Amino acid sequence: MALLQVNYYSQTLGMDRVMNVILPELSDHNPSWTAADLQDIPVLYLLHGMSGDQAVWTRRTSIERLVRQTPVAIVMPSTDLAWYTNTQYGMNYFDALIDELPQKIATLFPQISKKRDKNFIAGLSMGGYGAFKMAFSSQQFSYAASLSGALIGDPNFPGRDAWQNDAYWQGIFGNLTKFSGSDNDIITLAQQQSFRKQPLPKLYAWIGEQDFLFENNQHTISQIKALGYDVTFETSPGEHDWYYWDKKIERILEWLPINYKKEKRLS
């Protein structure tokens, strides 16, 4: 696998951006692969949380090692602290990721598939919110996964006051009294997509039972299931911490339709 740092210019944001990409390549790790195996490659967009950036998944998890025997690309962009949202202060991070980024990928990495059934998205915490939001807002992704996601459908979501003050949240989402029912409300977006009678993404969510977002996930996932989505919802002992996300990213790889090949393990 090749690990690439890609510096590019975003016309949508009017600024230079960085994404990290894990790209399968012919190597001694995969002697049976041919050039044909590396065409129309499935891709997983992997989103960071509030304290992270485009490099945090490779720094704090085993993702690069885990996928080295599986022909799948991993694209890790950054949204800074903008919650994968078109902010109230004029920075359209959502548009930059949902519209512009796939165009950049298609230009720079033509071997990565453009097909919906080979495009997937996942994230942790704020990135779990972003993954579901982007999957519900488009027909781009066939699978979406959340780890300890802040699955916001209510302006009084857990941790809001501890993470940032009201001025910050209003800069991101606008008037919080109008959050419910808006384009940033996960439940509203899930409802809108289900009403369109288009193919629905398959969903996966994991949340630790000691996580402060546990009840938020239970409530939101139950509402999404009621809308007819195929949801795999799992819980186990765990907190809002990289120790658990490092373990659960492999669970997502197993769940995705990518013929994930595990490394050899003796224990």
Automatic annotation (TrEMBL):
Gene3D superfamilies recorded: alpha/beta hydrolase
Chain coiled-coil ranges: none
Protein name from the UniProt record: Esterase family protein
Gene Ontology molecular function terms on file: acyltransferase activity, transferring groups other than amino-acyl groups
InterPro entries assigned: AB_hydrolase_fold (IPR029058), Esterase-like (IPR000801), Mycobacterial_A85_antigen (IPR050583)
Provenance organism: Leuconostoc gelidum subsp. gelidum
